[in-house]
Amino acid sequence: xxxxxxxxxxxxxxxxxxxxxxxxxxxxxxxxxxxxxxxxxxxxxxxxxxxxxxxxxxxxxxxxxxxxxxxxxxxxxxxxxxxxxxxxxxxxxxxxxxxxxxxxxxxxxxxxxxxxxxxxxxxxxxxxxxxxxxxxxxxxxxxxxxxxxxxxxxxxxxxxxxxxxxxxxxxxxxxxxxxxxxxxxxxxxxxxxxxxxxxxxxxxxxxxxxxxxxxxxxxxxxxxxxxxxxxxxxxxxxxxxxxxxxxxxxxxxxxxxxxxxxxxxxxxxxxxxxxxxxxxxxxxxxxxxxxxxxxxxxxxxxxxxxxxxxxxxxxxxxxxxxxxxxxxxxxxxxxxxxxxxxxxxxxxxxxxxxxxxxxxxxxxxxxxxxxxxxxxxxxxxxxxxxxxxxxx
Length: 392
Description:
Oligomer: single chain
Largest sheet: 12 strands, mixed
């Protein structure tokens, strides 16, 4: 499927590949109010269904984010307000004046789920409105539904334009292939000014084949278990990713961690943490500040750890001495067992212990502060194999 994000000068995109949805995003321009202020036009998003499924069998829904501010044009030419936690078929979204499945969004940040089937996703609005499907949970009401999400943030600006961020995501599972492009409505060409403005995926069969081939046990990787991966078929829903799969579905990092420990491999993690929220924060851990930690891996995958020690130039606030950072008297300890868990290198949400001037504490995962930034840097390096590599 293709999605297209547009400006008053951008429009849709096409593709002829099976199992494919396209999204076109056309950036908004501006309209002028009587007061002389400017108001952002809604951003048109056009959906092109090249999946081989009827458009009455393809649904979208805004889940897990803020309320959506936008509308679609119904079959009678009337504007209908979009609602979060509500399913809309591509047939329902077909604009009679253009013949395209189209929505207009002024303000939204979150996931946009798309699914195949006779109806949209179930259980919408649960968990206080924050429900999103649990892809690996057989008890989830959408477990047997084939769905995929993409992510969008559309923010109206006071100058009259819109800031748009959008990305495709297969990080949790692979089920439906998307294309996405920012296009000019004047000539339907890709807006090359937009960074990564044309995101192209292989068709779904290629993606499924690649993800299944990377698993050690395809029976566990493909959901529901026993479903064929030859598409299209009615049983297949998704290939689950390592952080949501059972042990043994994918390789772990035992050999890598053993090698790092046996060589006492060292790391240096240094940079500037911009802070969490408006600055200054009045909180040492969320304050913008420098960081510089070093450490060495020890032991093996079952008994070792890495202790990251702050260096003298670490923890210096970017807002001056009246709003201090954490300083240089700090360590972060991560066990190799936790690094090798599903939440470790694979999940990028490892448990770690912090010791600083405020005391000692152990997290339940990465926190949104300077220590989380340091741990995130380490996990990124491990994920890409940079740590211990002799290739640069």
